[in-house]
Amino acid sequence: MASSVNGPQIRREKETVALMIALYCRKVHAGRERTDPRERVRDAAAPLCAECAELHRYAEQRLDRCRFGEGKTTCLACPVHCYATAQRDQIRRVMAFAGPRMLWRHPVFTLLHLLDGLKKGHSQ
Ligand code: SF4
Ligand SMILES: [Zn+2]
Q1: pLDDT above 90 coverage of the chain, percent
Q2: Is the pLDDT of residue 51 over 60?
Q3: CB atoms inside a 10 Å sphere around CB 58
Q4: Per-residue pLDDT tens for 62-81?
Q5: Entry's InterPro entries (predicted)?
Q6: Nearest atom within ligand 1 for CA of residue 72
Q7: How much distance in Å is there from the Cα of 30 to the middle of ligand 2?
């Protein structure tokens, strides 16, 4: 059972995923309509498109319910990966695109995220 779903590691993962989706949407979905200003996430030049807004909500909801709590690795390195197949494919595309670019924009943050990904010891 999760020890906490609102500690620094979960918050960092939420921040990471928000930044990555924002970057991906800004670059890959540049021509899309952005209809909901509430979906603006930090560091995003524009609100998210509908598809990315939904993915962002989904990722936050997964983290709110993460069974590993503060003991978690990154979602990408998670042996369980609680995402449904469609969302898992989406988030992998986002991370493959945004991961290398994040290193330049947020080097310290990215390093911390990579260290989180090296954590082991999940039991199901
Ligand atoms: S993918 Fe793994 S680490 Fe991420 S929220 Fe789901 S169970 Fe937790
Ligand atoms: Zn988008």
Answers
A1: 37
A2: yes
A3: 17
A4: 999 999 988 888 888 888 88
A5: Uncharacterised_YgbA
A6: 3
A7: 8
